[in-house]
Amino acid sequence: MTARPQEAFARTPEQLLDELALELPDLGGATGRFVRCVQTGNVVFVAGHGPVEKGRPVFLGRLGDGMTLEEGRRAAVQSVLGVLATLKDALGELSRIRRIVKVLVFVSSTADFTDQHLVANSASELLESVFGLEKGSHARSAVGVASLPYGFSVEIELVAEVDS
Amino acid sequence: MTARPQEAFARTPEQLLDELALELPDLGGATGRFVRCVQTGNVVFVAGHGPVEKGRPVFLGRLGDGMTLEEGRRAAVQSVLGVLATLKDALGELSRIRRIVKVLVFVSSTADFTDQHLVANSASELLESVFGLEKGSHARSAVGVASLPYGFSVEIELVAEVDS
Amino acid sequence: MTARPQEAFARTPEQLLDELALELPDLGGATGRFVRCVQTGNVVFVAGHGPVEKGRPVFLGRLGDGMTLEEGRRAAVQSVLGVLATLKDALGELSRIRRIVKVLVFVSSTADFTDQHLVANSASELLESVFGLEKGSHARSAVGVASLPYGFSVEIELVAEVDS
Question: 3-state class of B30 per DSSP?
């Protein structure tokens, strides 16, 4: 039996993260009173993740109020990395993800800030880079909220389909 | 074999939209970096849709700040029509929808506006008109957010069950 | 055949609610134009529930604007009790719930209030008390929104897995 070429040369999501020089963050021990993801059938529901590094909240602030779009985009990337850390921890290998299904991006915003979709795009771009277009492209909502826990600028939750 | 009367005379969701003189909007080409819906198993997750006509955002503004409830209700209807355009595009026929399961309505709101449920009702009424009570009635949340992409007044996401 | 000890002595969620001296609220007749939950496969999607007692909204207000954290926590508990009333009504017995999968907690908040997770913890703690850690622990998001229907301070929606 011959390995199919696309599989032989395919890189894992973990390798692709490495190539992008991105690291899965240490989320720290505490989640308050909940768990970071729950699977039902082939579907995993991932809790809302804000940007965390070494177990501590980062990118605190509010879009439209002293925080730049570029900082918001980095906050979204860091939040997705936290989501991936949770999925890696739960699944063992990120390649067990068959499809990123749905992403919900909450952006702490003033009433005047209306570029939540641009903040969210950085999260979507990362998911497409790591899982490829076929598995990584997803349905998405992006909304501007009044405030988030710990003063997070971004919080991202996600639904994914995984193998059996 | 005789056609069962209720089926022989049943109208499709598309015909019911026609009778209501409602048209599925052209959503335009761009979604940023995501897709408009993703199916996993028999369940379709639809991305957040704001009100769009001929590929352009309409009903911009904020409830409680110069925008009337009636405009908000029309924004919600237009958002649902966008959701249906997406489902029609993905499924071919809207009759493939077995049940509207869950609707989440984000309403751009001032702190003083607390009639998000009345805005959302117009979306729910449309879904019941087009799919009938049995398939069209759904669980729903309606919340007031600080702001939405492009200055949308309303954004609606939806979960539906479809045939196999 | 001998009853397994843990089953013989296990208390139902209803009995545990009793022991906590908590009562499922009367949610009143009206939901606007939607239903309180919809099941698809083994998964139940529950609509957003604010705190209601005897069919009337309670705990109105906004965190960070005259409402204390403790009041917010009681609002979250009352919202979860409403969710459980809906599930009890739909399923007959709460013991038919195999897992609380995902909870989304909307907290009406000023821009300065960033303790949504502490408000949400009271909801999570109640779910764990009633269903036990194995079935009751769940993925969760908590966000601060501009306002909620009827002036609710909290609104909670939930996804649960139920038996076949």
Answer: coil
CB contact under 8 A, C34 and B116: no
pTM value is 0.94
Q: What is the dihedral of CA A16, A73, B145, C60, to 10 degrees?
A: 80
CB pair distance less than 8 Å for B138 and C35? yes
Does B102 reach chain C within 8 Å, measured CB to CB?
yes
What are the residues facing B164 on neighbouring strands? none
Task: Using CB atoms, pick whichever of C40, C46, C65 lies closest to residue B99.
Answer: C40
Sheet holding B154-162, edge to edge: B37-40, B43-49, B154-162, B97-108, B139-145
Cα–Cα distance measured from residue C143 to residue C45, given in angstroms and rounded to the nearest whole number: 19
Question: How far out from the chain centre does Cα A84 lie?
Answer: 6
Q: Per the CB < 8 Å rule, is B140 touching C38?
A: no
Q: What is the pLDDT along chain B (164 residues), one digit of tens a residue?
A: 444 444 446 899 999 999 999 999 999 876 667 899 999 999 999 999 999 999 999 999 999 999 999 999 999 999 999 999 999 999 999 999 999 999 999 999 999 999 999 999 999 999 999 999 999 999 999 999 999 999 999 999 999 999 98
User: CB distance from B91 to chain A under 8 Å?
Assistant: no
Q: Which chains touch B (3 or more CB pairs under 8 A)?
A: A, C
Both tokens of residue B111? Answer: 């702190």
